[in-house]
Write a structure and sequence with these properties.
With 1007 residues, this protein is mostly beta strands. The protein is globular and about 110 Å long. The strands form twelve sheets. Strands 47, 48, 49, 50, 51, 52, 53, 54, 55, 56, 57 and 58 form a twelve-stranded antiparallel β-sheet that branches. An eight-stranded parallel β-sheet has the order 31-30-29-28-27-34-33-32. The protein has a seven-stranded antiparallel β-sheet with strand order 1-11-10-13-7-4-5, with no helix packed on it. It contains 13 helices and 58 strands.
Length: 1007
């Protein structure tokens, strides 16, 4: 080994690295400084943004002894991850470490990349030269002109080296050896694809000899926010010296000018910053040949009697967790890519971001300052892999007559103790503190950062207590968060005195009820992760919103997570993959596909649901008037929104217009609208909340959300059908031992007496259904069904079929009535459902099905119950009245509106990389396809698909799906809800098909 063993020594975190400090870029005094255009600075030399020479080694032990003098074999873009460039392989794991748990040691066959870049420089003897790496995974050894210049780790934090003494005037050669793993990798076990290399910008800063190294901008507001005090504390690389400070207001007017070592100012009536109206002052600091610019926002975040407040207002975070992730560029995220994320977030009513689970690029906070987002800035720490260590477990007998040994509580506590390993290990205390300091020092001047987070899922102990204490003494103006403080090691008593929140992940709303109604709880309740957005998900978003709003102690939460993680497969197919698709082990499959948007930033229905749940205005029926409430914290309704309204009867607009209403934040007002009288039709009032003006991230006429208020619902909407009455012809019934054949003019029905269902329906000899019209209880499990699926399959739901016990029939003047007693059964399992079914075949071609169902109470709730039609293949449009046009479910329909819609099987299919139940429509009055229409006496759900549920269940990727030879139509009395149980609470009872007895029916007509 020719490299020092720094990478397996947690006591050596850096060699020659500069102290952590605030992020900024100096400009020349003859320039107009702008942090967001740092490349224009005369003192900034970009070394990234181009290809560097590169050699990949599958083990650092294969690095030649004279590697600094050998030509490199290939090249690679910087920034990038080497896995995205054809080296090594992608690897996705959530909790398990991708190497043996043996801290601080990592595998001897530790892959590495050798980078080389040549650059020219006219060296000024009166300057210092600082080389910055903004992100390197996992550690780097730095060489300048074949001389060792430094070592550093912390993948997602800036590493700065003073390389002045190593530089030549003229050509210079930079070599960096980057290792895939180091002892720091034990603290970087985040739920993501594990990628390596130089993935953020690299640049050289030219500084004065005695340069401004750091500064801390602090502001305080008096209780009524009428006055602010602003201070700037400076630190130089040498002796302190005077700085020319100039402060400008948000309109650009100069309001203060001081020449001093530090800055101090009292400002009357400051314009305050918040996420809704991010007003920024501008501060310039000139010293020597440099001028530095910083944007400043005045805001105060604090806890008042267990309520989180910003500038005096109780705040609800409508947040998301965001990873740096792209299918092509991996961790290497450009400003344009990040800005796209922010635009989408702003357009979908997201006001806060948790930088999960590491600091984002240093300029990311500047964008959030400017565009208005609250940030939880999280340290680059996660070590939940320690929780997967083996715990002594009793051996059990397979025989029922042997009593089971129960040591669940001991196992639980030992697992927690393992989880807390790094939180308590003395040899990792310095590393945890270093990562905390790096996070805070770099971003301490960002207005958008309102909370520091110690990290994620790493247990709790002395190391995190020290980190929290350090933050409190360094930055008293912000709050501190750490969810894993809820875990108590058996040999330690947690000190929570420096933490400002009670925080959990993925609890049900019942947890909010318990905590927020307890008078003894004294901290705000923050859900740092909730409503896991995996696949077809976020069915519980509205329930969480209602609980957040119900309690002042609740300050909202952060949905997990923003985007799906799925790199492109290496076969140049353009397809994406998840864990296991790259030959990676261990892996966690598609658990990385848990975002509100796709890897290409196409919003899923989950995001559309969340957007309307988070809408800043809500309306409700109050007597015979419409009341709206303004849920913004700082924005007046009449200044921000125009309300468009439409009265609709049976889905058709009969009146429309727009209005404005004066309404202060958190207040209510009545709309100047009169409600329509009942005219025998299903009547709704549709309200859309339209932005009154364009903003930086919102287009003109942007819709913040909508409400649909049902005014009259006595009548269901039925399809417009031919008024021509068919010729009534008598029935002919032929019965055999196993079937009934019923003929009625052009129609011919075959009824299977063994199964109690119709197996054929023909018109003029042509099949109207291509397979039996069967009762249906199965759905392709969603990602949220991953736990209940085992119970469903143990009960036989996935292979259920009907079995008749008795079939009787009679012919009346106008109909043939078939009565059947049957059950849904499955091999090796007990009866699932008992059904008493009455079929009525009417002379006009109409078939009505009336069902009484009984379900044994001990069985799990049903995925669905209804009928499944296999119809002749068609691309024709189906018409329906129900929640559309997006997929909708009993707990996930706030993204959709009741109305008249049209779709076909292909259009109705909602793609998820891992196939699952999708495309259902809730609250339908009817559905019509070609000459078939189905209605019911109560709203129902339907699904139209080119795929069977069996095909969706069986296949691992959407691109593996094979279409059915038929068009598949499912009509459901009920479909169980979606929830978020892939990583969260079980589905709420009100969204389950849980009845032990129910009645339902359908009217089926073939015109």
């Amino acid at each position: 080994m020719i490299l020092p063993q720094y990478f397996e020594n947690p006591e050596i975190l850096q060699v020659n690295r500069q102290p952590h400090h605030a992020y900024f870029v100096p400009f020349a005094t003859n320039q107009q400084p702008d942090q967001l255009t740092r490349k224009t600075s005369q003192f900034f030399t970009a070394l990234s943004g181009k290809n560097w020479d590169f050699t990949y080694y599958d083990s650092v032990r294969n690095l030649p002894e004279n590697f600094l003098h050998l030509p490199l074999q290939s090249n690679i873009p910087v920034p990038s991850n080497w896995q995205t460039q054809g080296f090594d392989r992608h690897h996705y794991t959530n909790i398990n470490y991708p190497f043996p748990f043996d801290p601080p040691f990592v595998p001897k066959n530790n892959p590495c990349g050798h980078y080389r870049h040549e650059f020219g420089l006219t060296k000024n003897p009166n300057k210092r030269y600082l080389l910055n790496f903004e992100g390197v995974d996992s550690c780097l050894f730095l060489y300048i002109n074949q001389q060792f210049a430094g070592y550093g780790q912390i993948s997602h934090c800036t590493q700065e080296f003073d390389i002045t003494n190593h530089l030549n005037s003229g050509k210079n050669v930079l070599d960096a050896v980057v290792l895939k793993w180091c002892d720091g990798s034990y603290l970087e076990d985040q739920d993501k694809f594990r990628m390596s290399g130089i993935f953020r910008d690299v640049y050289l800063l030219e500084r004065d000899k005695n340069y401004l190294q750091d500064f801390f901008i602090k502001s305080e507001l008096v209780d009524d926010f009428s006055q602010a005090s602003l201070t700037v504390e400076t630190q130089f690389s040498g002796e302190k010296q005077k700085v020319e400070f100039v402060l400008y207001d948000p309109q650009g007017a100069e309001i203060a000018h001081q020449s001093a070592v530090d800055f101090s100012l009292v400002l009357d009536n400051p314009i305050l910053w918040n996420a809704e109206n991010p007003q920024l002052y501008r501060l310039t600091m000139q010293t020597g040949n440099e001028i530095i610019e910083q944007k400043i926002g005045f805001r105060k975040i604090y806890v008042d009697n267990a309520v989180l407040k910003i500038n005096g207002q109780p705040i609800k975070f409508k947040g998301v967790n965001r990873h740096d992730s792209d299918p092509k560029t991996g961790y290497a995220i450009s400003r344009e890519q990040a800005l796209l994320d922010l635009k989408l977030m702003k357009r979908h009513n997201i006001n806060a971001i948790r930088t999960a689970h590491y600091p984002n690029a240093p300029w990311f906070g500047e964008l959030c300052d400017r565009y208005g987002f609250y940030l939880i800035a999280e340290s680059d720490i996660e070590s939940h892999g320690a929780s997967m260590l083996y715990v002594e477990t009793p051996e059990q007998s397979i025989f029922l007559n042997n009593q089971r040994i129960n040591r669940d509580e001991q196992i639980r506590q030992q697992t927690i103790d393992n989880f807390c390993y790094f939180a308590r290990a003395p040899e990792f205390k310095a590393a945890i503190l270093d990562r905390t300091i790096a996070n805070v020092e770099r971003d301490k001047n960002r207005t958008s950062v309102v909370i520091w987070s110690l990290g994620n899922e790493s247990g709790y102990g002395e190391n995190f207590e020290a980190a929290a204490a350090w933050i409190k003494q360094r930055d008293a103006g912000r709050l501190v968060h750490y969810e894993s403080s809820i875990y108590q090691h058996s040999q330690h008593q947690n000190d929570l005195s420096h933490l400002d929140f009670y925080s959990e992940m993925y609890p049900g709303t019942e947890s909010l009820d318990t905590y927020c109604t307890d008078a003894k709880t004294a901290k705000p309740y923050l859900l740092c992760e909730y409503s896991h957005a995996m696949g077809n998900s976020n069915g519980d978003a509205e329930d969480y919103w209602q609980s957040f709003e119900k309690y002042d102690k609740s300050c909202g939460g952060f949905v997990w997570e923003w985007c799906d993680h799925a790199p492109y497969l290496p076969d140049n197919s353009g397809r994406m993959g998840y864990g296991g698709d790259f030959g990676d082990t261990p892996n966690d499959g598609n658990f990385c596909m848990d975002g509100l948007v796709s890897p290409l930033r196409i919003p899923h229905s989950n995001l559309l649901e969340l957007k309307n749940v988070n809408r800043p205005i809500r309306a409700r029926l109050s007597g015979n008037r419409i009341e709206v409430k303004n849920y913004w914290d700082f924005t007046k309704l009449d200044e921000a929104v125009t309300i468009r309204y439409a009265v609709k009867e049976n889905g058709e607009t009969v009146e429309q217009g727009e209005c404005k209403v004066k309404c202060a934040p958190k207040r209510t007002a009545l709309l100047p609208l009169s409600l329509p009288d009942y005219r025998g039709k299903f009547t709704t009032l549709d309200l859309e909340y339209i932005a009154a003006a364009k903003t930086d991230l919102l287009e003109p006429d942007h819709c913040y959300g909508f409400d649909q208020i049902v005014i009259h619902d006595k009548d269901l909407v039925l399809p417009k059908i031919s008024k021509k009455s068919p010729a009534l012809t008598p029935f002919a019934v032929i019965e055999s031992a196993r079937s009934l054949a019923v003929k009625n003019g052009d129609y011919h029905y075959i009824f299977d007496k063994d199964r109690g269902i119709f197996t054929e329906i023909l018109q003029k000899g042509k099949a109207l259904i291509e397979r039996p019209l069967e009762f249906n209880i199965w759905r392709a499990p969603t990602d949220n069904d991953r736990l209940i699926r085992e119970l469903w399959q143990n009960a036989g739901y996935h292979q259920a079929y009907s079995r008749a016990y008795s079939v009787t029939w009679q012919q009346t003047e106008n109909a043939v009535v078939i009565q059947a007693v049957l059950a849904m059964v499955a091999t090796s399992r007990s009866r699932i459902l008992t059904l008493r079914v009455t079929y009525r075949l009417h002379q006009n071609g109409q078939l009505s099905v009336e069902i009484h169902a009984e379900r044994p109470a001990h069985l799990p709730y049903l995925p669905r119950f209804g009928l499944r039609f296999f119809l002749p293949k068609t691309r024709a449009q189906a018409q329906y009245f129900g929640y559309g046009s997006q997929e909708s479910y009993s707990d996930k329909h706030h993204l959709a509106r009741l109305g008249n819609y049209a779709t076909n099987a292909a259009e109705n299919h909602t793609h998820y990389l891992k196939p699952q139940e999708n495309g259902s429509h809730f609250g339908c009055h009817y559905v019509r396809l070609n000459n078939l229409w189905v209605s019911s006496t109560r709203p129902f759900s339907f699904n139209l698909s080119p795929y069977t549920q069996e095909e969706l269940t069986a296949k691992a990727h959407d691109y593996e799906l094979t279409e059915c030879d038929s068009t598949v139509l499912c009509v459901d009395y009920k479909m169980s809800g979606i929830g978020s149980n892939s990583c969260g609470p079980v589905l709420k009872p009100q969204y389950r098909l849980l009845e032990t007895e129910f009645d339902c029916g359908f009217v089926i007509c073939f015109e």
